[in-house]
Design goal:
3 domains, globular, alpha/beta, seven-stranded mixed beta sheet, Ribosomal Protein S5, domain 2, nine-stranded mixed beta sheet, single chain, about 450 residues, Rossmann fold
């Protein structure tokens, strides 16, 4: 009989090892390596055959359940799917529990909803519900940390279940404290199995690490159907709900909320939100027409270029990839002979939004050149386009939607790549300015090569 090989893993970070160690080499924790005991499986003779079905099944067509919170339903892909498991993470105090309590209060008007907390007492949750105006809803409340007791109490299933949070749960089948890798993985597996067998939509609140990732094993994000991140700045009243994974809808979808005295309020038109303070024309600002998820959003790109007194000039970025900033600066200096090597550069996306798509390159370049030269880009101008390493302005997707959103908000001039084949019935006061290379961008601002 072959000897079974032992396997060990870290109870803190999940790293695996062929033998026991006193200290984990990945996370540096001491006495966190434990043996992974295999579960005795059934013999082949005791295993039943699999029942196969086809892809076309009428019963697979399900109706999504709406909460009447527009931005919340949008991020989920048009409503919650029965039997799905949704993981939502975010910084402490950002509003995860508030958002889910509001959603459950709205859903409880038609569906059976249960809220289970392992962090707060019933009195604390009732105080928050009273502040949100949700104390008159039909939400059932309980405080429990034992996942076996939760599943036993809800064995027939409910429509919606919120677990706040997954890191506080523990399973009696695992001998470790709550929040460890093993407990989080085991409890999540049992809740996912419960959701799939009963048709219950389960929301799991997840803590995040100091790096912003959801705490626990990475496999947790693979196991669930949807992963949402709730983001926002402490000094800003606006919150962003972002979908990074969704089996039932588009990824990278955004929901914009405003935190008010009585809870979170959906922002129906986020473009107006991010452009409300553009009253005066100043150098270094450009409006970017971007796409987040399924809808276009206009945001303001701000740049500040100042004389540097350091050997290595500073490069500070908020809401943008700093490596792309390095690339754009290199392209401008190489192709246009406009130097930034003796200047500190500060770049920010106004409103706290984080932009990741390459289509923002053109707006960033315009802001940098405007800040360096002092030439003003008029407020009614917006831009989008990707900049290549050779200085060409590359085409971007969904051009018509970007232009339509800018036109709806009153923009008169749109700077876009000449490679974009765009045909549209426009009003007479809309002007499309096409650019082919970075030199065309410099010409728009009335600059010349070797500009100082």
């Amino acid at each position: 009989m072959a000897k079974s090989e032992k396997s060990f893993y870290c109870n803190e970070c999940g790293a695996r090892y062929p033998k026991w160690l006193g200290r984990c080499e990945d996370c540096g924790q001491w006495n966190s390596i434990i043996e992974d005991v295999p579960v005795n499986g059934k013999t082949l003779s005791n295993v039943s055959n699999i029942e196969f079905t086809g892809l076309s099944r009428p019963e697979c067509k399900v109706d999504r359940k709406l909460s009447d919170i527009g931005e919340f339903d949008r991020v989920l892909g048009g409503g919650a799917v029965p039997g799905s498991v949704i993981l939502i993470g975010g910084d402490p105090g950002i509003g995860k529990s508030t958002l889910l309590l509001q959603a459950l209060a709205a859903l409880s008007q038609e569906y059976d909803c249960v809220y289970i907390s392992g962090e707060e007492s019933s009195e604390q949750i009732c105080l928050r519900a009273s502040r949100l105006g949700a104390d008159g809803s039909n939400v059932k409340l309980a405080c429990e940390t034992n996942v076996d007791a939760i599943i036993k109490s809800l064995k027939d299933g409910v429509d919606f279940l919120v677990i706040d949070s997954i890191q506080t749960l523990q399973s009696s089948s695992v001998d470790s404290i709550p929040g460890t890798i093993t407990q989080v993985r085991s409890c999540a597996y049992e809740l996912i199995h419960f959701a799939k067998t009963t048709g219950t939509t389960v929301f799991l609140v997840g803590h995040v690490t100091k790096d912003g990732a959801i705490a626990g094993p990475k496999v947790l994000e693979h196991m669930v159907d949807t992963v949402l991140y709730f983001e926002g700045e402490r000094g800003n009243s606006y919150r962003i709900l972002r979908a990074v994974k969704n089996r039932y809808g588009p990824c990278d979808e955004l929901g914009i909320f405003e935190m008010q005295q009585h809870g979170l309020v959906s922002v129906a038109n986020p473009s107006v939100l991010f452009l409300t303070q553009r009253d005066n024309e100043v150098p270094g600002t450009t409006v970017f027409s971007g796409i987040e998820g399924t809808r276009p959003i206009l945001v303001e790109v701000q740049a500040l270029v100042a004389k540097s007194y350091f050997a290595a000039p500073r490069r500070t970025v908020v809401g943008w990839d700093i490596n792309r900033l390095f690339t754009i600066l290199a392209v401008i200096e190489s192709k246009c002979k406009i130097a930034f090597s003796d200047r500190d550069v500060y770049l920010s996306i106004a409103g706290g939004l984080k932009i990741s798509e390459p289509a923002g390159d053109l707006a960033v370049a315009l802001s940098l050149l405007s800040a360096k030269s002092g030439n003003i880009i008029e407020n009614h101008t917006c831009a989008f386009g990707e900049i290549g390493l050779t200085g060409e302005i590359r085409s971007v997707s969904r051009c018509a939607e970007r232009v339509k959103e800018a036109e709806k908000l009153g923009f008169k001039n749109i700077i876009l790549p000449s490679a974009n084949k765009f045909s549209k019935e426009m009003s007479s006061d809309i002007r499309l300015t096409t650019v082919k290379t970075i030199l065309d961008v410099v010409a728009i601002l009335g600059l010349s090569r070797n500009h100082e």
